Amino acid sequence: MDTETRRTHLATLFNSKRCLRVLEAHSPISALLAQRAKLEVAPGQSVSYDAIWSSSLTDSTQRGLPDIEILSPSNRLHGIREIFDVCSMPLIFDADTGGKSEHFAIHIKMLERAGVSAVVIEDKCGLKKNSLFGTAVSQEQESIEEFCEKIRAGCASRDSQGLMIIARCESLILDKGMEDALERCMAYVDAGADGIMIHSRKKDGLEILEFARLFRLQCPQVPLICVPTSYSHLRFEVLEKAGFNAVIYANHMLRSAYLAMRDIADGILANGRTLEMEPRCLGIDEILDLVPGTR
Description:
Layout: H1 3-16, E1 20-24, H2 28-36, E2 38-42, E3 45-48, E4 51-54, H3 56-61, H4 73-86, E5 91-94, H5 101-114, E6 118-122, E7 124-125, E8 140-141, H6 144-157, E9 164-169, H7 178-190, E10 195-198, H8 206-218, E11 224-226, H9 236-242, E12 246-249, H10 252-271, H11 284-290
Parallel strand pairs: 1-4, 1-12, 4-5, 5-6, 6-9, 9-10, 10-11, 11-12
Antiparallel strand pairs: 2-3, 7-8
Helix pairs in contact: 2-4, 4-5, 5-6, 6-7, 7-8
């Protein structure tokens, strides 16, 4: 797939499908697995993933680095290009805060040329901390006007309308309330954001469903995205019905892979051999079949 087609495909999917399934991919092999995942739910009817998510958390974690915006987009572009070499799915890029407006404008050009389909920036400032810490650590939001200026700078930097810029609102994460979240998101849309990602750490999911209801009253057509890491009990169909246009499973490929690797490493030490661990490993034949051209 050429760069232009890949970049514009996500916007096409938003227009043609009610809700997209998006899975985190932190390496070429995880992207291949995401692309090949398919489940038949009824005769002649199947579900699969529509796009992949490049997470700043998983990209930094796999390098043994803290999730504090230590990696810039330029640090991560090589890995994205490796993913694009083997995977044709559109990619949504987690750009943390986006940095300074001037830097964000330059990064937009870089990501656009690489073939990234959408860039998400969050409305926090200062040293970035993972959102799921909530108010347990010091986290501050940028002013509405400053963040809107960053959105406008990114939009003006694009060479085409193929790359989507999505604004992520942290008001619910920081206990600022529903009114603040809605006010900010309306301003971000007015500033040119092509979509909104709303984040919540409330485990019952009621907050996120209420936000979707209220947002849809004011913005019936703007793509709305959620990341159900905290409210993992809510099924895709529930979020789709609530009005979300994309559901991102944002870190599960890396979390599951590293859990398995830890247990295998411990198990080999405990047993003094690999026999007991073999059932928990992908078969060599499957590995050989997974990557085209190996045989």
